[in-house]
């Protein structure tokens, strides 16, 4: 009987060990007194947890005083609750004198991406992220971009672990939430590293607090937006699209795309909304082989930014004069985008029908 060679767990010689990565990170942080950690616009739980984790490393290993910043606002009730629980005071990028900081880091995002307000020309010392690598990122002094990972929280956990730092309950709870929310409870875009980080962190997390954060009270406007999502949702074959109109912040667009992907028989969802003069688009798919990130880039075209993972992606397009919510010009733009989306996903010829009969 033929024997197969025993499968050995071998580390690819090109993959640096966590301790080596930490040593490199430490070199960059060494000697600094201040650090600014920049998150994506409207940061999500993964970004918030990853930033809190990097802050811990800077604080504990280097005595660096650390500030957190982002573009846009923290809009979702869950994210506001998380920030409050962690005792963070994230600042708006617009309110900060960036020259004041001796080091600049970015987590869960990359310079020049569509969801980042920071001037891409500003040099960064550290970039830690799990989105596909961007050209601008390569000029940072230290980069750790692992696009196969489900969450930046997983990557930051590995640094905390390598540093031998005791992870306190609030940070463990946040990192667990970061991993859970970016991977839909490890069911989407997650790797073994995400599962291992989750299992290591979970015993230190406070599930009761996490339960309260996840079920934070929602403002009544949330339900109004939800009604708009459902009223405007149209099915085209295996795809569903909905426009949410004008919104104060874009989080509801992504959340709606998640929700609509759950409609029976649907393999693609696209939700859109207008925030601050930009059209935001969120895409989701259960057909990962077609790559949502590639479709998002096609939707953004040359005018906007687009990208993301296999199963989830986003695009942002700056609106021109006259393309206001409710205007014929915006209507035409949306129609073009929906047509492009339906063609890209193989639903171009399917008849349109409303999700719910009115
Ligand atoms: Mn993330």
Set out the fold topology.
Elements: H1 18-29, E1 34-38, H2 45-62, E2 65-70, H3 77-86, E3 91-92, E4 103-107, E5 126-129, E6 142-145, H4 152-162, H5 169-182, H6 192-201, H7 207-214, H8 220-232, E7 234-236, E8 239-246, H9 251-260, E9 268-275, E10 278-285, H10 292-300, E11 305-308, E12 312-318, H11 328-344, E13 352-354
Parallel strand pairs: 1-2, 1-4, 2-3, 4-5, 5-6, 8-9
Antiparallel strand pairs: 7-8, 7-13, 9-10, 10-12, 11-12
Helix pairs in contact: 2-4, 2-5, 4-5, 4-6, 5-6
The protein binds manganese (II) ion (MN).
Keywords summarizing the entry:
six-stranded parallel beta sheet; Diaminopimelate Epimerase, Chain A, domain 1; 11 helices; inorganic pyrophosphatase (n-terminal core); alpha/beta; 358 residues; globular; binds manganese (II) ion; 2 domains
Q: Profile the largest sheet.
A: 7 strands, mixed
Termini gap: 67 Å
State the CATH architecture of the largest domain. Answer: Alpha-Beta Complex
The CATH topology of the largest domain comes to inorganic pyrophosphatase (n-terminal core)
Total count of strands = 13
Small molecules held by this entry? manganese (II) ion
């Amino acid at each position: 009987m033929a024997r197969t060679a025993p499968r050995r767990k071998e580390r690819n010689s090109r993959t640096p060990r966590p301790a080596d990565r930490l040593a490199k990170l430490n070199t960059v942080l060494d000697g600094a007194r201040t650090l600014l950690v920049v998150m994506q616009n409207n940061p999500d739980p993964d970004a918030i947890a990853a930033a809190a984790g990097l802050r811990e490393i800077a604080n504990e290993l280097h005595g660096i005083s650390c500030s957190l910043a982002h573009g846009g606002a923290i809009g979702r009730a869950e994210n506001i609750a998380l920030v409050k629980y962690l005792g963070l005071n994230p600042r708006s990028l617009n309110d900060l004198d960036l020259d004041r900081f001796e080091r600049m880091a970015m987590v869960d995002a990359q310079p020049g991406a569509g969801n980042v307000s920071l001037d891409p020309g500003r040099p960064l010392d550290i970039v830690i992220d799990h989105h596909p690598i961007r050209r601008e990122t390569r000029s940072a002094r230290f980069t750790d971009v692992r696009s196969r990972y489900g969450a930046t929280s997983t990557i930051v956990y590995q640094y905390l672990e390598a540093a031998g730092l005791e992870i306190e309950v609030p940070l463990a709870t946040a990192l667990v939430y970061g991993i859970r929310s970016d991977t839909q409870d490890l069911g989407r875009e997650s790797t073994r590293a995400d599962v291992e980080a989750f299992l290591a962190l979970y015993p230190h997390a406070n599930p009761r607090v996490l339960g309260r954060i996840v079920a934070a009270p929602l403002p009544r406007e949330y339900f109004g937006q939800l009604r708009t999502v459902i009223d405007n949702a149209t099915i085209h074959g295996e795809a569903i699209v909905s426009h949410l109109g004008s919104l104060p912040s874009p989080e509801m667009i992504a959340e709606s795309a998640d929700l609509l992907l759950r409609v029976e028989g649907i393999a693609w969802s696209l939700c859109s909304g207008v925030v601050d003069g930009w059209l935001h688009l969120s895409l989701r798919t259960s057909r990962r082989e077609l790559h949502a990130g590639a479709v998002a880039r096609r939707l953004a075209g040359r005018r906007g930014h687009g990208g993301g993972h296999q199963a989830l992606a986003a695009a942002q397009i700056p609106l021109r004069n006259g393309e206001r919510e409710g205007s014929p010009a915006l209507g035409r733009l949306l129609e073009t985008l929906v047509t492009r989306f339906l063609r890209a996903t193989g639903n171009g010829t399917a008849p349109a029908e409303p999700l719910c009969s009115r």
